[in-house]
Write a structure and sequence with these properties.
Order of helices and strands: HHHHHHHHHHEEEEEEHEEHHH
Radius of gyration: 30 Å
Helix content: 55-70%
Low-confidence stretches: none
Structural class: alpha+beta
Strand content: 5-15%
Distance between the termini: 111 Å
CATH class of the largest domain: Mainly Alpha
């Protein structure tokens, strides 16, 4: 009998000490399972703190508990996109993975996750490339800061190159440690057909006309621009240049690897065969050689 009285008194004490919903924090509302009330409170806070991603993530988590999966996925997608826009790729990926977990067949979310993963890879590549390229310049070189600024400016164009996209971090480091920046004045012949110059170039800015002389006229057969390569067969196979390459009406800037740079890149390389395969994957020179031969009917 006494035990029942004590239990009754305890229940009265607990009910009397329970907070009103209006006085509860968001954490307390969630702990009590008052999810609808937590949603109302979170949405109110978000309206006054629109740029706070943590509040939106909490709202998504609560909507998950309520079974409002589509709403939760939309919130995770929104926050993941905001994180990616601001360069917080790890947070973006973690948030988007939550959306994929809830709706693995949502093509929009899956594409966004893949896009952010690629953005993260490119950012890591950018850092590796800059560190490798600028790191080889002596600290006492007064031009070192200028090289850093120039390389930063050129990177968006270099990142277009399929070769660079395919390289791993250590391969990126080896490549850019053994390349230098070269500039060609406007309307200048860079290479002549049949010339033996063992150089490989990645175009960083400007455009290059590729063609041949025909009856005294220069015929353009292909245009190369930022992200394109030239000289892959010239350096890696020792072949002569297959056409005339000349700059257009603007300066052309490239990153160049010569024979000495290639030798250094391969020395001590953990996988020289794979490294060479990736650098030669475009087969740009051989494609141009075929175009030239077809045009000249050789």
């Amino acid at each position: 009998m006494i035990e029942k009285v004590v239990e009754f008194l305890n229940s009265l004490f607990k009910s009397g000490s329970r907070k009103r919903k209006e006085d509860m924090s968001i954490d307390e509302l969630i702990a009590e399972g008052l999810y609808d009330d937590a949603v109302v409170r979170l949405e109110k806070e978000i309206s006054s703190k629109r740029h706070d991603p943590t509040l939106k993530i909490r709202l998504a988590e609560v909507k998950e508990k309520l079974g409002r999966i589509n709403d939760a996925v939309e919130l995770y997608l929104q926050v993941g996109s905001e994180y990616a826009r601001d360069g917080f790729y790890d947070k973006a990926i973690a948030t988007l993975q939550k959306a994929v977990r809830l709706d693995p067949n949502n093509e929009v979310v899956v594409r966004k996750l893949r896009s952010v993963e690629n953005m993260k890879k490119l950012e890591e590549s950018r850092v590796s490339a800059i560190n490798a390229f600028v790191g080889k310049i002596p600290e006492d070189d007064p031009e070192k800061a200028n090289y850093f600024i120039e390389f930063q400016a050129l990177w968006p164009n270099l990142a277009k190159c399929p070769i660079i996209k395919s390289l791993r971090g250590w391969q990126m480091r080896i490549l850019f440690e053994n390349m230098d920046i070269v500039r060609f004045d406007p309307k200048k012949v860079i290479f002549r057909r049949g010339e033996k110059r063992e150089e490989f170039h990645i175009i960083a800015s400007g455009e290059v006309e590729v063609g041949v002389e025909d009856d005294g006229n220069f015929v353009v057969l292909r245009m190369l621009g930022p992200g394109d390569v030239m000289g892959d067969a010239a350096l890696f196979e020792g072949k002569p240049w297959p056409a005339i390459y000349r700059s257009t009406g603007e300066q052309v800037t490239t990153l160049r690897m010569d024979k000495a740079g290639l030798a250094t890149a391969l020395k001590g390389n953990r996988d020289p065969v794979e490294f060479l395969r990736l650098l030669r994957v475009r087969q740009s020179d051989n494609e141009i050689a075929k175009i030239v031969k077809d045009f000249l009917k050789e």
